Amino acid sequence: MLDQLGRDLKQLQVDYERFFNGALPFPPEELRTRIQGQLRQLRNLNLTAAVDNFRMADLEARYNTYNELWNRRVRDLEEGRHARPQTAAPEAPRYDVERGILVAGPVAPEAAEALYQGLARSEAPKFDLDSFRAYLERQAAAIRTRTGCGQVQFRLAAEDGKMKLKARPVGDTAG
Question: Are residues 60 and 2 in contact, defined by beta-carbon separation less than 8 angstroms?
């Protein structure tokens, strides 16, 4: 019976970790209740061997320690102190408008949208997304022609409380 209790306690520990990591939708209460019954039943037995008494005390102490930890973690989840991890992490933004977006040819729609959204955060834009993308392409072509660079970097910078679009040549220049 002590061997079975040890295996069940290990399984309960694994199931609770799976629950806290988001793999199980509900805590393993059925197994927890069964282990509590096994502990009660073993306490009522008159264990004569010192080894069995020591093992029983060890399993009971381990269960009580884990039980307190699990109760505290479940309470934290219920009170919203610690959220369970999501199954898929949210993807980081592909374009960082503050560090800069490199443009070598036509402006990617996602890049133009990221810059457009960044500008829209400080004030309502006076043009639509398609016009803005066309403007970026004209600016990039003009800078490449004027400087002979291979790429143009567009970034947003805060000046006087407003977001400003900055462009600079990057790469080989003819000069």
Answer: no
DSSP 98-126: TT-EEESSSPPHHHHHHHHHHHHHHS--S
Query: What's this model's pTM, rounded to 2 decimal places?
Result: 0.45
User: How far is Cα 157 from Cα 166, in angstroms, rounded to an integer?
Assistant: 7
Q: What local confidence, expressed as pLDDT, does residue 119 receive?
A: 77
Lookup: tokens for 122: 């400080």
Between 9 and 160, name the one with better pLDDT: 9
Alpha-carbon gap, residue 61 to 159, rounded angstroms: 62
SS3 of 17, please?
helix
Instruction: Let me know if 30 is exposed, middle or buried by CB neighbors in 10 A (0-12, 13-18, 19+).
Output: exposed
Other CB atoms within a 10 A radius of the CB of residue 27 amount to 19
Q: Which residue has the tokens 């209740």?
A: 33
CB–CB of 132/112 below 8 Å? Answer: yes
